[in-house]
């Protein structure tokens, strides 16, 4: 009996890149491809912008820490492969439910595709970075932080042409993660076909080692 209805925004020219919410509540965040981050606390009846005063508007990912829902992560740079995407300016963290944000690095990744937070430790964060859309970019890859974003390590790197477009964590055993890499190649029929760097990766030790 689930029925869907449009809850906005009224202008349909933009795109939604990602959504995350607090389970059991009417609060969720929307990351838009070219319009920053929006928050609702009434199930989508009204929204308010939370990112308008920050240096970039193109968003790629949003994530709420399951064990501390005041901690919200925003990855900038729309990752959907198309000719109109804009680069971002790194990853941002809010410790007050989206009221204020702090830049936490990864500026050269340009397009962040997904963020996941350890379900019990909010200081452990994984970031899938697509990298520059139209050129080689050594900052591509899957990043991990164990100190709440103060420092990052490159957990998995494929090549300067292949970035990461998704990452998922096992909530029962957060040392198990799956991640998808993707490489753009040009063909006579498409600019977005997956190249040799594309693949599905798994780790069982929290990102120390990965197998394809």
Please write out the topology:
Blueprint: E1 16-21, E2 28-32, E3 37-40, E4 48-49, E5 59-64, E6 72-76, E7 91-94, E8 102-103, E9 112-117, E10 125-129, E11 141-145, E12 153-156, E13 162-169, E14 177-185, E15 193-194, E16 199-203
Antiparallel strand pairs: 1-2, 2-3, 3-4, 5-6, 6-7, 7-8, 9-10, 10-11, 11-12, 13-14, 14-15, 14-16
Task: Write a brief structural summary.
With 212 residues, the chain is mostly beta strands. 0% of the residues lie in helices and 37% in strands.
Features:
212 residues, mainly beta, four-stranded antiparallel beta sheet, 16 strands, 37% strand
Question: What would you say this structure looks like, in words?
Answer:
The chain is mainly β. Helix content is 0%, strand content 37%. It has strands spanning 16-21, 28-32, 37-40, 48-49, 59-64, 72-76, 91-94, 102-103, 112-117, 125-129, 141-145, 153-156, 162-169, 177-185, 193-194, 199-203. A four-stranded antiparallel beta sheet has the order 1-2-3-4, with no helix packed on it. It has a four-stranded antiparallel beta sheet with strand order 5-6-7-8, with no helix packed on it.
The counted number of beta strands is: 16
Number of helices: 0
Largest sheet report:
4 strands, antiparallel
Query: Would you tell me the overall average pLDDT?
Result: 91
Strand order of the largest sheet: 1-2-3-4
Strand residues, percent: 35-45%
Helical amount: under 10%
């Amino acid at each position: 009996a689930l029925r869907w209805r449009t809850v906005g925004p009224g202008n349909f020219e933009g795109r939604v890149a990602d959504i995350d919410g607090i389970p059991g509540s009417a609060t969720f965040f929307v990351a838009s491809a070219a319009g920053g981050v929006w928050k609702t606390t009434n199930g989508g009846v009204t929204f308010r912008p939370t990112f308008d005063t920050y240096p970039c508007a193109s968003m790629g990912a949003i994530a709420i820490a399951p064990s501390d829902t005041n901690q919200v992560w925003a990855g900038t740079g729309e990752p959907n492969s198309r000719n109109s995407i804009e680069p971002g300016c790194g990853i941002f963290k809010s410790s007050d439910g989206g009221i204020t944000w702090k830049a936490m690095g990864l500026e050269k990744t340009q397009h962040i595709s997904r963020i996941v937070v350890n379900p019990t430790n909010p200081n452990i964060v994984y970031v899938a970075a697509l990298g520059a859309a139209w050129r080689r970019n050594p900052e591509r890859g899957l990043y991990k932080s164990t100190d709440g974003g103060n420092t990052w390590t490159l957990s998995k790197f494929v090549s300067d042409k292949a970035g990461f477009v998704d990452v998922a964590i096992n909530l029962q055993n957060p040392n198990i993660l799956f991640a998808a890499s993707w490489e753009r190649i040009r063909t006579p029929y498409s600019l977005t076909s997956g190249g040799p760097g594309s693949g599905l990766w798994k780790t069982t030790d929290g990102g120390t080692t990965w197998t394809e």
